[in-house]
Design goal:
Length: 310
């Protein structure tokens, strides 16, 4: 986000701007979450330091623990991924939404924070009823409550809602200079993935090394290559990821590598994507990767053959 946005955020947090509602928008990969979180914390913290939450007071600590009573995060739910009326005003029960409606939340005084904050992510997923009810609320703002909306589809948010919010575009920050080829490839240029890669350096470096060495294994190297590929899993540090999630991550990286190195092998790219889906669906890891690597090695050769034929 450009420096002037930085300044706007500081002004908002220090109460030098009267905006009650802010809408952050940007394309996929833009750090909407980061900016929305920064504003929410800054608004709530009773003693912000240099235009940002102090990070140390009970309000900030409650936010760290995700247990703040003054913060109401809302995101789409259910099979249709919608934000329905139930989130905005009291109404019929919804088994999948058990938080208080915004209408109740904003009329109560803050427990600890300076102001109460409602955050609505993917605001474009509000259905018509919810959007219209929210619009009414934005037209009559409460003194001690503020709202933060985020969206990757600005056109999906009512123009009347946009006009009641301070709308701030969030750009994808340029990839830091000096990124190596592996990080550039696996991070797909997004900050979230970059962070993930930096937090597991051994895993990603080894995965990249294995992939780069595959063509050198020769025509009969498929099973050896598959085995080495699977072994990389052991380098994942920490226990927060399930084996299935790590396998899916390995396949995501393999897919990116194949797309970059073997753009001629479209069916193979499809096959990697298919195995990725099957692994997420709990298919056997070796059972899926052995044939995939056989196909990969066949594709290496096809390329060589087609080069000879020319
Ligand atoms: Zn604080």
């Amino acid at each position: 986000m450009p420096a002037d946005h930085d300044l706007i955020l500081q002004k908002l947090i220090l109460g030098q701007s009267s905006a009650q509602s802010v809408l952050f928008y940007g394309t996929e990969g833009a750090p909407l979450d980061q900016w929305a979180d920064r504003l929410a914390r800054g608004w709530m913290c009773p003693q912000p330091v240099e235009g940002a939450a102090c990070g140390e007071c009970p309000v900030c600590l409650a936010m760290d623990r995700r247990s703040s009573l003054d913060y109401l995060p809302i995101r789409p739910w259910g099979a249709q991924r919608l934000i329905k009326l139930r989130a905005v005003v009291a109404g019929s029960n919804d088994a999948e939404y058990d938080a208080p409606p915004i209408s109740e939340f904003v009329t109560r005084s803050p427990f600890q924070a300076r102001v109460r904050v409602v955050r609505i992510d993917d605001a474009d997923r509000m259905n018509a009823d919810a959007a219209n009810a929210l619009l009414k609320m934005l037209e009559e703002p409460q003194a001690r409550a503020k709202m933060i909306l985020t969206t990757q589809q600005l056109s999906g948010v009512l123009a009347t809602i946009q006009s009641r919010c301070l709308c701030l575009a969030v750009a994808i920050p340029p990839a830091p200079e000096g990124l190596d080829a592996m990080t550039l490839l696996f991070s797909e240029g997004t900050p979230g993935l970059l962070q993930r890669i930096e937090s597991q350096p051994a895993f990603y470096r080894e995965l990249y090394r294995i992939l780069e060495e595959l063509p050198g294994l020769g025509p009969s190297g498929a099973l050896l290559g598959a085995e080495r590929f699977r072994d990389v899993e052991k380098l994942w540090e920490g226990e927060d990821w399930t084996a299935r999630a790590i396998h899916a991550e390995q396949l995501r990286c393999l897919g990116l590598w194949v797309r970059q190195r073997m753009p001629y092998a479209a069916p193979l790219i499809q096959e990697v994507a298919q195995v990725h889906r099957k692994i997420l669906g709990n298919a056997g890891w070796s059972l899926q990767t052995d044939p995939l690597f056989c196909a990969l090695f066949r594709a290496f050769q096809t390329k060589e053959l087609s080069a000879v034929a020319k």
